[in-house]
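Dear colleague,

Thank you for sharing your sequence with our group. We've completed the structure prediction you requested, and as agreed, I am returning the results in plain text so they can be pasted directly into your records. Please verify that the sequence below matches your submission; if there's any discrepancy, let me know and we will rerun it promptly.
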Amino acid sequence: MIELAYIIGLAMAIVNIFKGRLPANVVPLLAVGIAITLNVGSAFLFGADPLTAFREAFVGAGIVVGLFASNDSKSNRAGTTANSEPTSPEITD
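Please find the predicted structure tokens below.
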């Protein structure tokens, strides 16, 4: 069976191709779905247990996608307000 880290990396690369065309809330679910599909396909191809492959991919991809989504949302909100204007401290004399 192909190593799960390679499967997740390939799934993230595939998702990045379609990332601009999809709503932001669909992208993490698509990444998890592609990772699970690739890992279960790998299990069938190499004769491993597909249920174990499903579980491993679900947990691994969920963690990685959660980290990426968390990182993206923090970097997009840092230093901005609701109307996307940079914040700065007020200087008073």
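Summary note from our side: The chain has a mean pLDDT of 80.

Kind regards,
the structure core
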